Amino acid sequence: MIAIYKKEMRAYFSHMMGYVFLAFMLLSIGIWFAINNVLGRNTNFNWALEGATIFFFIIVPVLTMRLFSEEARQKTDQLIFTSPLSVLSIVLGKFLAAFSLFSLATGITIIMPIMLSRFGEVPVSHITGTYVGFVLIGAACIAVGVFISVLTDNQIIAAVITIGAIFVMFIISAVAAIMPTTTFASLVFVLLVIAAIIAIWYNATRKIIVTVIIAVIALALAAGLYMANNLIYDGIIVRVLLWFSIFGRFSNFSRGILNINDIVYYISFSALFLYMTVNVIEKRRWR
User: Fold this and answer.
1) Following DSSP, what letter does each residue of 45-96 receive, concatenated?
2) What is the pLDDT of residue 135?
3) Does residue 189 contact residue 236 with C-beta atoms inside 8 Å?
4) How many CB atoms lie within 10 A of CB 243?
C-alpha cells in the first residue's frame, strides 16, 4: 500500500494535476473567505467552508478521474493487479493519496481563521466541527470518485460521471422530499431494490442456483415483513435516499456538533464505495 501511495503522490506533483488542484481548491475557499469574512466583516469562517463544498463537483473529479482509468488506458493496470500486492492495498493506496492531497489543501486554509482571530473572536468549536465535516465529506466524495474511475478507461468519462454523482448527492435531499411515502409505493421500491441487488449478485458470480435461492429468501422476507407489520415500509424510499445525502448531515458539524452517528455514517459511506471498488477489480482480475 505504501508503494502505491508514494507512486500516486509522485504522479500528482510530477505533473500539473496536483498543483492545479491545490490552486483551485485554495482559490475556491479564498473566494468565499473574501466575500463572507473580509468584505462581510465576519469572523465566522464556517460559511467559507460550507460555500466551498459546492466546488466539490470540480475538485473531486480532478483528484480521482485518473487514478484507475489512466492505468486502464495505458494497460499498466495489469502490472499492478498481477503484483504481490492485494487489491485492497492498491485501492487504499490510491484513495489515501487523493485524500492526503485534499487534506493538505484543507490544512493550508487554517491560516484564514487564524488571520480572523486577530480582528475579533472566532467560534473555535464551530470552525473545528466544520473542518471535521468538510474533511469527512471530502473523503466520501473521493471514495465515490475512486469507484467511478475503476469503471472506465477514459478520464473524461470518469470525471463527467463523478460530477453527476456528486450533483445527485447534493440535491438528493430535495428529491427525497417529493417522493411518495405510502406503504404500497415503499413495497414496490423494496422489490425493485431486491431485484437490482440480485441482478448485481448474479452478474458478479454467475451462480444461478445460489442466486435463485437468495432471491426466494429475500422476497419471502420482504413479503413476511409486509404481512407482519406493513408500517415498517412507510417512508422507506425517503430513508434510503437520505442515506445518500452526504451534504445533508453537514449542518451538524457547522454548528460544532460532533455526532458520533454522523462520523460513523461518513466512514461507512466511504468504506462501502471502496469495498465496491475492490469487488470490481477482483472480478476483472480473475476474468
Assistant:
1) THHHHHHHGGGHHHHHHHHHTTTTHHHHHTT-HHHHHTSSS-HHHHHHHHHH
2) 92
3) yes
4) 14
DSSP state of 1: -
Give the cell for residue 36. Answer: 463572507
Calculate the dihedral angle through the C-alpha atoms of 180, 182, 186, 189, rounding to the nearest 10 degrees: -40
Separation CA 156–CA 61 (nearest Å): 9
- Report how far residue 93's alpha carbon sits from residue 2's, in angstroms, rounded to the nearest whole number: 6
pLDDT, position 30: 85
Closest CA to 136 of 247, 278, 274, 273: 247
Specify the DSSP class assigned to residue 167.
H
Block residue for cell numbers 445525502:
245
Which triple of cell numbers denotes residue 81?
493487479
Residue 156 corresponds to which amino acid? I
Encoded amino acid at 58, one letter: I
Percent of the chain surpassing pLDDT 70 = 91
* Residue 55 and residue 93 in contact, taking contact as beta carbons nearer than 8 Å: no
pTM, entire model: 0.82
